[in-house]
Amino acid sequence: MELIFAYIKRFGDFIYDQSIQFSNDFEVRLENKILTVREKKNYLKDFYGDGIKNISVLVGKNGSGKTTLLDILGMNRDDRLRGSLKKNKVDDEYLLLYYIGKNGHGQKLFGIEVLGSNVFYDMFTNYDRGDDDDRYDKGKVSIGLVFKYENECFISIGKHFFNEMEENKADRLSDLIRYAYINESYRYSQRNERYGIYNQRYDDYIAKRIMYPCSNVYTKYLEICRCIEGNIEGFDFDKVKVKLYDEIDYEYLAWTDDDFKDKYKATVNEIENMLPLWKRINIFSNKKNEVEETNKREKYILDLYSRYILDMLVNGLYSLCKEEIRRRDSGDKTSINIMEHIEYIMGLESNESSYERLGKPTDFEEELSQVVILISWLKGKYEKEKLFALKVLARYIGSRIHGEEDNNDFGYVDILEKMIEEMFNIPERYFQKDGIEFLVVREANRYLENFLKKYSQWEKIKNDWHSGIENQFKVNFGLLSEGEERFIDTIAKIKDCVTEDNETKLLIAIMDEPDQALHPEWARRFIDIIVKALENAEHECDIQLILSTHSPYLLSDILPSNVFLLESSDVERQLSVQRMDKINANSCFGANIYDLMKNQFFMENTVGEFATKKLNNLAREIEGLDRDNEKNIENIEYFVDQIGESVIQKILKKKLEDRKQRLKLLNNKNRILEMIRNQDDKQRIKDYLEVLEDK
Fold first, then answer.
1. Residues near 606 by Cβ (< 8 Å), separated by ≥ 6?
2. Where on the phi/psi map is residue 435: left (φ > 0), alpha (ψ -120 to 50), or beta?
3. What is the largest CA-CA distance in the chain?
4. For 461-486, what is each residue's pLDDT tens digit?
5. Which of 56, 195, 341, 521 is the most exposed place for a label (fewest CB within 10 A)?
6. Model pTM greater than 0.85?
């Protein structure tokens, strides 16, 4: 399977009638509203390795439209409609053409995703659809359909992207084709506003689109291990610090909510004092508390449990009661006698709701009073079993937050219990007051690896199992430069998107300037490292990479048939897309970096602008040297010696030497004339020197 062609009839007010040919296996043309597909011999099949169909690159100056084209490919259906459908009028129209494969009769099948006011009618005409399809599709602004291609005509097979492609199979194109938009979260454009940074979006009408703003922690750890072991050439660091910490803030409301501060803060403080919190050491104190250095694992776990309970109490239960107060009459309160239900409370599960037995929480003051009673009872009964007491307390408060309908996917207490269970397997020496800290070195650390693997599994299901893990707990990788961190993160995200879905048959990974902030040597290695990473990843799908760049280093690794130059006109700023092998076939793969940099889509000048102006001024200063400013020669000579480009330096040195010779002639004018005996010769030389002096 492969994305082979994109046609943009119009997008915004600057893209009109532009085509992009992604495939090296097909030649696609759209002329006079006739869309034709020709299979061609691909002499460089598997050029980038087994399973990588091709790597396509968009180049052009800032503002030329690279990100816009990536968005057209990567936007989900909601964002397409939001951005293109205005007042029931469709402003944008474009289509994406896929080669799917052959059916049981050997016929080639193609998938077409389209956005348009009448779907196909205004883009191409050589298609044939059944009446039912025709009537249905007219009501859809954006949709994907499947065709066979015969006699230069696209003939509907009665399948949409949401239909099963074969009988007795659940495979649909909307599942088999997947886009992975890989980027830093802050760099996503506003066209992806509703994409959902943390939520995967599935849309049966077109292929699946998923964003990857963050890499899986465990995948990133494994890539770091590969670097430390020397398996990624060019990355030579020997250790990385890994730290798990939490961002639980239960004191925020005390500063921002006057109602909470006036009515409930005192009781919350009372509860806080009843819990085993590991209080912060005074940072201005020079005394080292030896007791604080012992039992660090137990202290951290008890402290974490306590703060987690307070967080659920303040940020969860208070917000819920506050919302209920707005809905109910002032006299409608739920009264709880916690001691009458103590056996029930002791038997609560981690994801169980207590609404049916104890009623829905409506009065926060009442809820707090019962929590105080429960803590007092637990302290008296389980004084030496603090962890068990906190577990009961956490399950009780969790049961007061969520309703019965949420039982199956409520994971706030689950995640806490699972993490603490894993923490008891970690040696005490790794615990700090604010988290758990490891060093990743050449020697494997099974405690760290096991914990990060579990953590990543929990984080992966955060959307189906609402645990708050992505908000409450963070993993930080330290001792890495910004470039190292970004590059490893990019490799990890590529690995994630390739390996996380076994059903995918075609993965299209989109990256907007992934080599940004990289050292030139890493930019030079970028494609090679990515290709090797994909070779090592276990996958059965076809992979296409589509990325933008400003780097000539990256471009030198790409075939010219897969490089697209984006240019916009000076006046109307309309976009033009040209394939590089149609312009200059020698300008990409294997080209010298200096030759690439001289292409104006990278740089108008290969010397810095400040240096360019200084060099131009220097040349004019040399030209203007005469006997009045001859003293500047030493300064100029020193300046010329600082120039790094040898050709420019030689030219200016020659120019300066010529000027010095002229000045030498003028300064020795009288002595030269005295040496000449022949009067005619003397007069000719005198006239020449006077002309030279005037110049």
1. 594, 597, 598
2. left
3. 133
4. 776 777 888 788 889 998 888 888 88
5. 521
6. no
